[in-house]
């Protein structure tokens, strides 16, 4: 066989098969890390620590460094870190912020954790990692069902499935949404066992919508399905028609929801009802809270994010370009929100507003450059001649959309629970990608 005709991915797979156990250890551990995301955060960090140790013991340091250096994501990632370092150096940190400054600073370095993952070349481990991620989502769905049937004990391992624990519970829903969308994408590319694949998708998606108790994840799943539909029908008038139909449906649903009386309570944990009733309750509460806030009326605890967004916007307007400084949001917000229900919040539950408050327009642009880079890499994958590379384009696109949407309602990069999970998932499609100039 002519060696020039062998694709880079096929060559890397042959290389992976020939590696010794020590050199293949990073591949094995990285492919298993997606499963740790569905358990307590300590399990995830323990797996990441094992991966770092495996990088050290596996040798070939110059090759690993070269892979990282040639990744198209390196410069955007280092750009965000550079912006945060420069602005931090210019910042005069008051005494009351000394304890919060360094933790806040390191939150802006979350993307640096992606770089060691990029030292692993492309190979069969990528598909293995995706299948392990799918298995984790099915396991998570099963645990949610077991909790609904009162079969799950309240212990450290299963606590996030039994009790709503904020960011960790939201993350579980987002992971299930991404996994279901990835499975739907893979169903198009691989037609083997179609019945089992469809059943798995329906099982995870239904559990997500009815039992996971996170509106962000449900919205994300339907959005990713829309992206797949648009990709399937191609560029035509239908690309415009489909969003218009969806907007018309949302508008009709909005008017219908407002015609119904507002719920007596929006505290889901206080309501004893079936999954579908809970879903309707949260939908009605969202619509009525948005409407009340737009009319200047007081919102309840469930609608405090609207209050968060408004006051944070006023803070941003004071110093829009370079921001107020790292770790300043909580201090500034609590001063302006005294007496309000949102005064105890520790983040604005919105990465865009957090970056604008603390790093200004410069910081937000640095973040958007990274996300724009992810979009660009996914496009390059889509037009690649190698089918293995093409298949990873849509998962990367979906991850980027998930991060951008999640950042509207949660601290995706401010919280290590979200941040590290996304770095692990990003490593799967980004492995082996190089700058065009280095190919």
Give the helices and strands, then pairings.
Blueprint: H1 8-18, H2 21-36, H3 41-57, H4 61-69, H5 74-90, H6 98-107, H7 114-117, H8 125-148, H9 159-162, H10 167-189, H11 194-211, H12 215-233, H13 237-259, H14 275-294, H15 304-318, H16 329-336, H17 351-358, H18 360-382, H19 387-391, H20 393-409, H21 416-430
Helix pairs in contact: 2-3, 2-8, 2-21, 5-18, 8-10, 8-11, 10-11, 10-12, 10-20, 12-20, 15-16, 15-17, 17-18, 18-20, 20-21
Q: How many structural units, i.e. domains?
A: 1
Encode the helix/strand succession as letters.
HHHHHHHHHHHHHHHHHHHHH
Beginning-to-end CA distance, first to last residue: 22 Å
Portion in strands? under 5%
SS class: mainly alpha
Range of helix content = 55-70%
- Broad shape: globular
Tell me the radius of gyration: 23 Å
Treating each run of at least 4 consecutive H or I residues as one helix, how many helices? 21
What's the overall average pLDDT, rounded? Answer: 86
Write down how many β-strands occur, each being a DSSP E stretch of 2 or more residues: 0
* Largest β-sheet summary: none
Low-confidence stretches: 1-9
Pfam families: Wzy_C
Domain O-antigen ligase-related: 203-368
Subcellular location: Membrane
Membrane topology: Multi-pass membrane protein
């Amino acid at each position: 066989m002519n060696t020039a005709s062998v694709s880079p991915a096929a060559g890397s797979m042959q290389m992976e098969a020939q590696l010794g156990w020590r050199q293949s250890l990073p591949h094995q551990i990285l492919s298993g890390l997606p499963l740790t995301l569905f358990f307590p955060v300590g399990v995830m960090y323990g797996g990441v620590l094992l991966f770092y140790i495996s990088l050290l013991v596996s040798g070939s340091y110059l090759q690993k460094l070269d892979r990282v250096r040639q990744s198209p994501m390196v410069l955007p990632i280092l750009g965000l870190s550079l912006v945060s370092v420069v602005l931090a150096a210019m910042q005069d940190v008051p005494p009351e912020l000394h304890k919060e400054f360094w933790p806040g600073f390191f939150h802006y370095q979350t993307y640096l954790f992606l770089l060691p993952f990029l030292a692993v070349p492309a190979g069969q481990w990528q598909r293995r990692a995706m299948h392990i991620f799918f298995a984790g989502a099915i396991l998570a769905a099963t645990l949610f069902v077991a909790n609904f049937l009162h079969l799950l004990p309240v212990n450290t391992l299963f606590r996030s499935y039994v009790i709503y624990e904020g960011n960790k519970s939201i993350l579980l829903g987002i992971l299930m949404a991404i996994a279901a969308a990835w499975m739907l994408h893979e169903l198009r590319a691989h037609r083997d066992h179609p019945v089992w694949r469809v059943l798995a998708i329906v099982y995870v998606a239904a559990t997500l919508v009815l039992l996971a108790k996170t509106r962000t994840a449900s919205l994300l799943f339907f959005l990713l399905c829309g992206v797949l539909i648009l990709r399937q029908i191609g560029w035509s008038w239908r690309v415009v028609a489909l969003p218009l139909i969806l907007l018309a449906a949302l508008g009709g649903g909005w008017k219908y929801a407002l015609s119904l009386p507002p719920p007596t309570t929006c505290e889901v944990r206080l309501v004893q009802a079936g999954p579908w009733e809970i879903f309707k309750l949260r939908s009605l509460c969202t619509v009525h809270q948005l409407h009340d806030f737009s009319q200047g009326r007081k919102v309840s605890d469930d609608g405090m994010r609207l209050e968060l967004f408004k006051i944070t916007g006023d803070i941003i307007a004071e110093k829009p370009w370079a921001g107020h400084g790292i770790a300043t949001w909580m201090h500034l917000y609590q001063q302006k929100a005294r007496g309000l229900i949102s005064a105890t919040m520790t983040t604005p539950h919105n990465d865009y507003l957090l970056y604008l408050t603390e790093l200004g327009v410069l910081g937000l642009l640095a973040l958007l450059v990274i996300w724009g880079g992810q979009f660009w890499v996914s496009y390059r994958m889509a037009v690649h001649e190698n089918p293995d590379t093409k298949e990873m384009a849509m998962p990367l696109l979906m991850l980027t959309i998930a991060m951008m949407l999640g950042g509207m309602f949660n601290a995706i990069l401010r919280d290590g629970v979200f941040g590290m999970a996304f770095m692990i998932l990003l490593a799967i499609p980004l492995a082996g990608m190089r700058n065009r100039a280095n190919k």
